Amino acid sequence: MSAKSKSIQEKSKDERLRKVSKLKVLLNRPELGALGGSILVFIFFGIIAGDTGMFSAYGTINFLEVSANLGIIAVAAALLMIGGEFDLSVGSMIGFAGICIAIPAIYWGWPLWSSILFAFSMAVLVGYANGILVVRTGLPSFIVTLAMLFILRGATLALTRLITGRTQVPGLRVLIENDPIAWIFSADAFKGVFTWLGSLGLIALRQDGSPLATGIPASVIWWIGMTIFATWLLMKTRYGNWIFASGGDKLGARNVGVPVGRVKISLFIGTAVAATVYACVQVLDAGSADTMRGFLKELEAIVAAVVGGCLLTGGYGSAIGAAFGALIFGTVSMGIYYTDVDTDWFKVFLGAMMLIAVIFNNYIRRRVTENK
Amino acid sequence: MTNNLVEFNNISKFFGSVIALKDVTMHIKKGEIMCLLGDNGAGKSTLIKTLSGVHRPDEGEIIVDGQKTIFDSPRDALDMGIATVYQDLALVSLMSVTRNFFMGREPMKGFGPFKTFDVNKANSIASERMGQIGIDVRDPSQAVGTMSGGERQCLAISRAIYFGAKVLILDEPTSALGVHQASVVLKYIVKAAASGLGVILITHNVHHAYPVGNSFTILNRGKSMGTFDKKDLSREKLLGMMAGGEELDKLEVELKEIDRLSKN
Q: Do residues B83 and B128 share a domain?
């Protein structure tokens, strides 16, 4: 570069840099991929299935609910992944938590609220066990939580059969109605708004005049709430900085006084608790618990987190991204029924999406860490 | 009372039957740069770890501000103002300049459970501090990975100073850097010392140490070969005193021998 062109660049440095850096900031956001992906998916189904009722109130609630269920665990999995660890026991924890709610309530006569609290305390215990094992032994969390995956699923199955003689525990529906806390996981929100919209004829009605979509499901509220909370945690608190630091460079973080062990343990507790929220929503919605509930959900949560921009190696990612990752997942898995495509192809799509996301993320990471 | 910031008197450290350090004595005054030189295996790493509280010395005493002390952990050393910048710098390249600068010691605002990380304050402090050492951080939220090696080193040193270091222990701060970058870092170290800090500069590069150091301690096979003032020591003498000097002479003789034999 000649001296002249250099001096020209110097002069116009400020305004030019500002322009570039704004674009760069946007490009470097971890959730960009998932956001773009969500828009693409909506455009795609808008064209293919726009007139099929997929985007009616009822259809929208349907795919949002699927997204929300996954989103609840994906957001927690994303935090853990940013903290540098995996939790493969999430799916098994869902089944285990479901049983922890159902058996005390149905067979031991506990009030429903106390069995829900019991399930949450078991979640804290399982999360703590995962965390302390990973932190103390230094083994990869992949192995530790893989072991926990089998242990929990096996224990769920064995205990349930031992106590009930079956693998499903139905009969919870009657207990929900008078319970003081069950509504947190099962009630629809904004029912009034939906009834009003129905009376205006804006959304579809049932035979009896009530709207087909009765309100925003509790899971959707949880999903949005948890995403906001996790994002606040990551971006605005000291603990959030510690999560990034623990995942980015464990030793470096420890050297400057970040309590890496405690951060990781708390994140493992977070994923187990999120799995229990998922279980509460599912069990109270279905009115029964099933030992196989949550099967393979841990992998779906990881897909959502990765599509959402989390690096598998930790230290980078976003909760909003994971929420969008879950939205893509939910939209496609429901949307595919509205198209002529055989639903068998869904998993192909899932795998391809994850592969593209990982390649894209890798590129982003190189941009973030190497460009000068 | 002396005006020494820190004194390390007759420090010894054993690992089982291995004598890693034996009777090492060093004093650091305010505004002084003390270079600790030694070849690989001379015990530099062990000494740093002992000085920074990772290891406890088996013999000898550490005196900070005239008070005899024992460091139980790196945190203890840090609390007494002895900060160590390790070779890995304790920086996370995926995190922003600001987040790295305040990692583990984030400024907070608000109260109770609603205390939040004061990002704006952190950003302005980080850019201000980096600006002071001549590094223009255009955007303090840019990732540290985008910075050069020298800039990272300066960031790590600047962070240690901001958080109240009185004595800086720098572990090979120039080893991975090019000539220009190394000179930037060395200049910053001189500035830091001029502002009243004591600096222990650990290196095996005499050419980096000699221009900036006030005194030199040479470590060889776990023992100190003494501390010398700059005025008593020429660069050549310093080079010769490092284990490398003798070795190189021997190597030269051996090479000549090989050369002679191959000609026959």
A: no
Distance of CA B191 to the CA centre of its chain: 15
Say if A15 falls within a structural domain: no
User: How confident is the model at residue A148, as a pLDDT?
Assistant: 96
**A272 to A47, A57, A93: CA distances (angstroms):** 39, 32, 6
Using a CB–CB cutoff of 8 Å, tell me whether B207 touches chain A. Answer: no
From B86, B90, B146, residue closest to A372, measured CB to CB: B146
Give the CATH number for residue B216: 3.40.50.300
CA pair distance B92, A254, nearest whole angstrom: 11
pLDDT in tens, B54-95: 888 888 888 888 888 888 877 788 888 888 888 878 888 888
B180 touches chain A (CB under 8 A): no
Buried b (16+ CB within 10 A) or exposed e, B178-191: eeebbbbbbebbee
% of residues, chain B, pLDDT over 90 = 5
Please say if the pLDDT value at position A15 is more than 60: no
In a domain, B222, yes or no: yes
Give the domain range for residue A179: 35-370
Q: Tell me the whole-structure pTM to 2 decimals.
A: 0.85
DSSP bridge pairs for A189: A216
**Please, which residues have CB within 8 angstroms of residue A10's CB and are 6 or more apart in sequence?**
none
Judged by CB atoms closer than 8 Å, whether chains meet at A236 and B108 is answered as no
Best to test chain B binding among A13, A19, A241 (most B CBs inside 10 Å):
A241
Please give the Cα distance from A318 to A233 (Å, whole number).
11
Beta-carbon separation of B99 and A244 below 8 A: yes
Instruction: Identify the closest residue of chain B to A234 by CA–CA distance.
Output: B117
Smallest Cβ distance to A21: which of B103, B104, B139? Answer: B139
Q: Under an 8 A CB cutoff, do B119 and A248 touch? A: no
| Overall domain count for chain B | 2
Chain B residue with minimum CA distance to A252: B90
Q: Provide the residue-wise pLDDT of chain B in tens; the chain has 264 residues.
A: 457 888 888 888 888 888 888 888 888 888 899 998 887 777 888 888 888 888 888 888 888 888 888 888 777 888 888 888 888 788 888 888 999 999 888 888 887 777 888 888 898 888 888 888 777 777 788 888 888 888 888 899 899 889 888 899 998 888 878 888 888 889 889 988 888 889 999 988 888 888 888 988 888 888 888 888 888 878 777 777 775 566 777 788 888 888 888 877
Distance CA A101, CA A160 (A): 12
Preferred mutation among A14, A238, A263 to probe B, highest tally of B CBs within 10 A: A238
In this predicted structure, the answer to whether residue A65 has a pLDDT above a threshold of 60 is: yes
- Any domain includes B255: no
Q: Residue A279: give its domain's CATH number.
A: 1.10.3470
Count A/B contacts: CB-CB distance under 8 Å: 89
Shared domain for B123 and B81, answered yes or no, is no
Q: What residues 13-42 of chain A have any CB closer than 8 A to a CB of chain B? A: 17, 21, 25, 28
- Do the interacting molecules here have an ipTM over 0.90? no
Residue A369 to residue B94, Cβ atoms within 8 A: yes
Q: How many domains does chain A have?
A: 1
Q: How far apart, in whole angstroms, are the C-alpha atoms of residue A363 and residue A357?
A: 10
Whether A10 contacts chain B with CB within 8 A: no
Closest CA to B215 of B230, B194, B225, B234: B230
Mutation to test the A interface, candidates B89, B92, B115, B147, most A Cβ within 10 Å: B92
